[in-house]
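Let us practice reading a record.
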Amino acid sequence: MEQDEYRIWQTLTEQDWKELIRASNLVRFENRETIFRQDTRSSHFMFVEQGLVKIYKTGKSKKILTLKLEGPGHFIGLHSVLGSEIHQYSASAVGAASIRFFDHDTFLEVVMRNGHFSLDLLRELSRHGLFMFEKLISQAQKQLPGKVAEVILYFSEDIFHSLEFEIPLTREEMSQLAGTTKESFIRTLSEFRHDKIIDLDGKKISIKSMKIIRILNDLG
């Protein structure tokens, strides 16, 4: 990984960058392999270099809730390593993923002596927090078509940056992301296809009317 490959590293001095890299390890995870598990102690700062990571939480009834996906250029587990020392959720690879593990103490030393980098890290924390806040409001207030439209828009604009993409999650995980049941999610996707809002071929989705997707998302 080069220092200028991702924006968040660009405020580091060459010395700080080399120090971080020396105190790090790049680990490759295979599809669905666990990166860290809920209720275990956090020990490293983790950064996604390649692939996608699913963030999910297990409730008291052992029901799993898919919270979001995180892609290259972003940290995972920041809230735990900076806030509680215990992971509040789990993370697993979606497909093959490469995660860089930074030594906890070395990383904090760099953070404390570099104000610009600290600010970028705060922005990363805020981005994640705002996403979860909006997700909570959405699941509490939106109707089913709005929830499904929001998920489609999320994959199109935030994850794949394309009107055509292949969903890397199961239908169950997609329904968890939307905050509905698997049956309701599948039924709504079929209705979207019938209304020619999307084309659906297995896991492949092609958005035919982004205008309607946005309207459904906005109206909820």
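A brief commentary: The beta strands are 24-29, 34-36, 44-58, 64-70, 75-76, 90-103, 164-166, 198-201, 204-207.
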